[in-house]
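Sample entry (242 residues):
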Amino acid sequence: MVSLISAGTARQIAPKVSEHVWTDSSGARLVAQVRKGELEFLLPCLAGTTPAVPVRDVHLVGDETVMLELLDGVEGEMVCPVAVELEDRAVLAHSGGRIEKGSLVLAALAEEVTVHADAEVYSASQDGDEPKFAEDFFIPSGVFSPTEPSPDWTPSAHALFAGEVIEAGTPVNTFTGKAFHRVRVRTIAAIELDVAIAATDLEQPPVRGNIVSGTFFLTGSLGLQPPDPAEIPSKRRRWFRR
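Predicted structure, serialized as C-alpha cells:
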C-alpha cells in the first residue's frame, strides 16, 4: 500500500497536507491524504469516466463524507440528496468544507449486486408482495438515520440503485493481478456512473442491456483544484530577526 501511495501523483493542498493519487490502467484508484508525513485518509475507488452530474449544496459531514444534492441536469431540479466520499475531499476541506454548486463524476463499488438479463426479467423478479422498484431507481440509503441514532451518527456513502448496463468490460488490476467487472450504468434521471463489481460476485460477466441492482458504496470527484503552489506559504514570515 505504501508503495502505491509513493508511486501516485502528488499535489500539495496546504503546507503540511498533501494528496497522492494512484490510478491503474484498469481504472482502479487509490487516493491518500498525508499530513505531516502521516497517513490521514485513504480511499479505494474507481476512476470515473461518465458525464459529470450537476450538484449543489456540497458540504462535509464528519471527517470523510460529503453531502450534496444531485440535480437532473435539465431544469436543475433536485433528484435526491446523497452522501459520497470524494476523491478531492482534501481540497474541499482546505477551501472551507463547502461549495454552493459543482459537477460530480460519480462512481460506485458494488457491495451486494444482482444482474438481470433485461428490464422484463428484472420486473418479473419482483412478483412477490414486496414493494416493486423501477429498473432505474436510486435510494440514497446512507442519508437515512436509524430510529435512534447515536450522538456521533453521520451519513454514509451508501445507496441502493438499479440501472441499465450501457458499457461493460472485465479489466485486470495490474497491482493485484485480479480481474473485476467494470460497467457503466444508467440510472434515475439518466444519471450515469461507473461501477466496479468483484468478479467472484457473479457467475457471468455483465453485458449491455442487463439490469444491475444492489447496494453500493459511492465515490466521486468534483474536479477541485488545490491552490497554486506559489500561494501556499512554506512557513510563517518572521518580521523580527536577531
